[in-house]
């Protein structure tokens, strides 16, 4: 069960996820045909649509949004999290062009001997407190919304991460449903095992779990996509806020073409966050990169938000810093 310090957060998050957020999401597995990422459908079967000079450009084949094929050590990733219409789940709830501009400015604060690469982390599978039609305790965001966020990310040459909170569903199955997006050069994956619960469990009432073996299966799938479609290095982020969420971590192995990042999601005052960082980073498997999450609301209830300088003073230095 969640600790006494973390339970109020989970209760509040559960109330949000199980109410307003679910109403915004697409619970159907197949919402109908949609344009493939980064492409515009023709106006009719015989009349092509006129060119749109403002259409976002797909990155060059095999390259990241701002060039190159490797995320690290060239880039410093800085991100915003969000879900359409839910301010409580991060800043990417609406006004995406404005938020992208703010993220760009924030990224400049993290230019510590690396090139900043802004990241939009969109929650595309959200855990629910009710079973839903298939009793998997999760809802899926519609393709039209994913396309909207990808278009904004491309206009600003940012990386898009698709965040999965699987509920009772099989995590790898949920990831594979996103292949049409993940085979794009500027789309990565985030997995939030806190919301991956077992049979008979309900998200928000208990912490979900994962294992090094399960992370291997996801990373191996991503590695296969990189090889098949000749993609640049693919970001694979997994979030962790407690030791109990991840077991058998040392079983994880590096996979070609995949940059795996552990995002340490400790909540609270700076001292609490640093303490969580000290518990979770020493256990990282070889080759895993360190990430750090800040919460605009939950963290500031206990004091000022950590500054970029304070974050970058952590050891090891975070290579991905994300704000929710």
TrEMBL record:
Residues 47-56 have a biased composition (Pro residues). It comes from the Bacteria. It comes from Kribbella amoyensis. Residues 1-23 form the signal peptide. Residues 26-68 are annotated as: Disordered. This is Lipoprotein. Residues 31-46 have a biased composition (Low complexity). Keywords: Signal.
């Amino acid at each position: 069960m969640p600790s006494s310090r973390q339970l109020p957060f989970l209760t509040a998050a559960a109330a949000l996820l199980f109410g307003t957020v679910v109403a915004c999401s697409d619970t159907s597995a197949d919402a109908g045909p949609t344009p493939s990422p980064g492409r515009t459908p023709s106006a009719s079967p015989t009349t092509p649509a006129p060119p749109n000079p403002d259409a976002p450009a797909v990155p060059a084949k095999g390259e990241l949004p701002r060039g190159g094929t490797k995320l690290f050590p060239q880039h410093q990733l800085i991100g915003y999290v969000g879900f359409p219409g839910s301010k409580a789940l991060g800043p990417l709830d609406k006004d995406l062009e404005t938020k992208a501009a703010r993220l760009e400015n924030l990224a400049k604060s993290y230019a510590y001997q690396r090139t900043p690469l802004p990241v939009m982390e969109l929650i595309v599978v959200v855990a629910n407190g009710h079973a839903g039609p298939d009793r998997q305790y999760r809802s899926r965001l519609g393709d039209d919304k994913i396309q909207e966020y990808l278009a904004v990310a491309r206009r600003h040459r940012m990386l898009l991460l698709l965040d999965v909170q699987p509920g009772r569903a099989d995590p790898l199955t949920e990831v594979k449903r996103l292949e049409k997006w993940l085979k794009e050069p500027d789309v990565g994956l985030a997995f939030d095992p806190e919301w991956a619960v077992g049979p008979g469990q309900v998200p928000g009432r208990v912490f979900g779990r994962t294992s090094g073996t399960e992370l291997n299966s996801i990373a191996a799938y991503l590695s296969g996509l990189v090889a098949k479609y000749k993609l640049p290095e693919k970001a694979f982020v997994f979030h962790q806020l407690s030791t109990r969420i991840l077991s058998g971590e040392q079983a994880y192995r590096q996979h070609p073409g995949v940059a795996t990042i552990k995002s340490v999601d400790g909540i609270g005052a700076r001292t609490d966050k640093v303490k969580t960082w000290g518990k979770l980073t020493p256990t990282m498997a070889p080759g895993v990169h360190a990430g750090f999450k800040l919460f605009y609301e939950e963290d500031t209830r206990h004091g000022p938000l950590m500054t970029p300088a304070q974050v970058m003073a952590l050891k090891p230095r975070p290579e991905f810093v994300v704000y929710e």
